[in-house]
Amino acid sequence: MPNNETDASVKPAFDADTVVVLALDVKSETAESGFERRYYACRGTRLPDGAPVEPSLGASNARELAQKGAFTEFKGRIVFAVYPTRTYSEGFGGGMFTEIAPEDRSVIRGLKRRFPGRVDCVKIPLSATSLFESIEDYFSGVEEKARYSEERAASAGKAEKRRIAEASPAPVAFDAGYIRNMGDIFKSCITKPNRQDYMWLVTKTFTLNLAIRLFFVVRSVNAGELAVSRAVISTSWYQLQDAVFTVFGQTYMKFLGKMTPMVKLRNAAVGDFVFVYIQLCSMEFINRLVLGPLGMNPLVYTLHGMGLIFANILQGMISGGPIIPAVNKMRKVGVISHSTMMHFYQLASLTMHFGLFATFGFQQFYAILTGAVLVLAWGSYLIFSTMFEDPAFDLMQDEQALLLVDAFAGRCFAVGGGHA
Q: What is the pTM of this model?
C-alpha cells in the first residue's frame, strides 16, 4: 500500500472508504474438524499493518458487525472475502477444502440487508493463495500437506470447468464419477459418533421407535397374520437400520451432502434426493419380503404386490423424500448450525414410521399421512432450494490485493479470534 514516501500515482488495492471482511478458519480444540469459522473486519487502508484486534469497529465478528451497524460511518463498499473452509464438506470426493461455509452465506445475507448495494463478494481460490502453506503447523503431517498440494494444483481446472457448466447448464446432468468413487467419498465422510448421537440412540431407537414397531408386530401376531419368527426378523431388521443411521447420522448427512451434485436439473443439484429414493426403495422391498402378506398387502413378489410396493414407495418418496435433503439445504444456506441439523435429522427420521402403516396393510391411513407430509417436506425443500440463492462471487485476481489480504489473514489466524 502506498504511504507518504510512495509514488502517488500508484493506485492502492483498497481505498480509504473500503471495509474488508475476511471469512477464515482458525484452529479449534473443540471442533470436530479442528477448525472453526471466524470473521475479521479491517479498513482497506489498514490491511498492510492492521492488527487483528482493533476496538474501533466495535464487535467480535462479522455477524455482530452487520447487526450492530459498525460500518455506518463508512460510506464506501464492503468487500467480503471468502477463504476455502475445512469446517464444512460438500461436493465430489474427499477434498480437504470447500469453497464456502454455510455460515458465510448467512453473514453475507445479513450484510446485504444492512448495507444494500454496498457489498461485494469475492472468493480467494485455493490455487491463488499461499496462506495455508505459509502458516506453521497448519497441516497435521506430511500426508495431509501432500493432499493439500494435489487439491491446490487441481482447483484451477475445476473452477474453470464449473464456470463453463454454470454458464450453459444442461437440462439434466449426471456425473457417473460419484458412483465410481462412492467408496472413497464415504470414507472421507466417516465421523466418530458423539454424545448427541448416543442420546438419540437411547431415547429414539430403543425407546420410542422400538415401542411403535412392537405395537405393529404384536397386533399382527395376535391377529394371526404374522408368524412370530417373521416378526422377530422384521423387528431386528428395522432396529438394525435405525441404530446404524442414528449412531452414524453425521456420517450419513455428510455423505448425502457430497452426493448432491451427482444429479443436476439445470442449476438445481438433486443427487441427495435421488440417492435417498433408491436407498428407501431397496430397504422397503426387503422389509415387506420378510413380513409377507399383511392386511391389504399381498405377497410382495406378485404383480399386485410389486405394483403396490412401488406405489407406496412413490407415495412416501413424493411426500417425505425431500425431508433429509431439505435439512441439508437448510444447513448449506446457513439457516441452521451443524448441531441443529443433526437434531432435525433425528426428528425427521420419525416420519419413517408412517411407512409402517403401509407395510402392515393400513393403506388408507397411510395415504392421509403422506398427503400431510407432502406439503411440509416439499415446501421446505423448495423454499431452501430456490429462495436462498448463492451470492454472486468474483475471484480475487489482483496480486497486490491478494498479498495484502493474505498477510492480514495470517495475522488473524495467529491470534485466532477477534476483529480488526
A: 0.63
